[in-house]
TrEMBL record:
Keywords: ATP-binding, Nucleotide-binding, Transport. One of its GO terms (molecular function) is ATP hydrolysis activity. This is Putative ABC transport system ATP-binding protein. It comes from Kriegella aquimaris. The keyword Nucleotide-binding applies. Residues 6-245 form the ABC transporter domain. Belongs to the ABC transporter superfamily. Macrolide exporter (TC 3.A.1.122) family. Signal peptide: none annotated.
Length: 247
């Protein structure tokens, strides 16, 4: 049986806005096993980003339990949470969040600068390996402005991998990309998932969710659906079906 990596129980998050309380999450519960590829869907304002921020230890719930690998996040200090964020979780955002005047390789090396156990040689080696995994070795000296959107997102994926995270959290990671590029990125995620990395992926797009194994749907801060996808599509197979690009 696979190991439970995430456990959420009766989780709430409220924001006090003057006299009003916004109940962004209203007591949700689920578990995620190691190796799952989960998409989180729901309309605007349903609580997706709030949930992802809590899962990424960027925010604390108002009440309820959040455990990673059996450890309760609310028992940890700020420093311990920062270590978990840096060593266990890879983050990928819609807007790539790369440093502008810095090469792809140096962007990927960045998370390792905070890891005093890693020497500069090892840092470089690991960054090159991560860049290779996303198929960008021939572009590693380019800065973000010299790369396409899809290539920039690959750099961001490589950066998220360099610390060997146990899970990747992605927030609308294909939101700025055309269909072909989005499918290319999804095929990289599927490949990483095959290698055992747990992926939690927030998206608005139902076709993107078909590439994951399980979909959780939020509405007004509640889970209204949580089910395994009966037919998981292969992103590389779907990519091959798209009309050829014209140049
Ligand atoms: N920092 C905050 N302060 C006050 N209210 C907030 C805050 N963050 C989120 N909210 C509110 O919580 C609710 C859920 O927001 P959230 O950003 O999680 O939704 P979402 O599903 O990610 O939406 P979108 O798809 O538009 O990004 C919304 O009503 C939002 O206005």
């Amino acid at each position: 049986m696979s190991k439970e990596i995430i456990k959420i129980e009766d989780l709430t998050r409220e924001f006090i806005m003057g006299a009003e309380t916004v109940r962004a999450l209203r007591g949700i519960s689920f578990t995620i096993n190691e190796g799952e590829f989960v998409t989180i869907m729901g309309s605007s304002g349903s609580g997706k980003s709030t949930l992802l921020n809590i899962l990424g230890c960027l925010d604390q719930p108002t009440s309820g339990i959040y455990e990673i690998d059996g450890v309760k996040m609310k028992d940890l200090s700020k420093n311990q949470l920062a270590t978990i964020r840096n060593e266990k979780i890879g983050f990928i955002f819609q807007s790539y969040n790369l440093l502008a005047r810095t090469s792809a390789l140096e962007n990927v090396e960045l998370p390792l600068f905070y890891n005093s156990k890693v020497s500069s040689e090892e840092r470089r080696e690991r960054a090159i390996k991560a860049i290779e995994m996303v198929g960008l070795k021939d572009r590693m000296d380019h800065t973000p402005s010299q790369l396409s959107g899809g290539q920039q997102q690959r750099v961001a994926i490589a950066r998220s991998l360099v610390n060997n995270p146990v899970m990747i959290l992605a927030d609308e990671a294909t939101g700025n990309l055309d269909t072909r590029t989005a499918y290319e990125i999804m095929s990289i995620f599927q490949e990483l998932n095959k290698q055992g990395i747990t992926i939690i992926f927030v998206t608005h797009e139902p076709d993107i969710a078909t590439f994951s194994n399980r979909t959780i749907v939020l509405k007004d801060g509640n889970i209204i659906q949580d089910k395994l996808n009966q037919k998981v599509q292969s992103a590389s197979a779907e990519l091959a079906k798209l009309p050829k690009e014209e140049h």
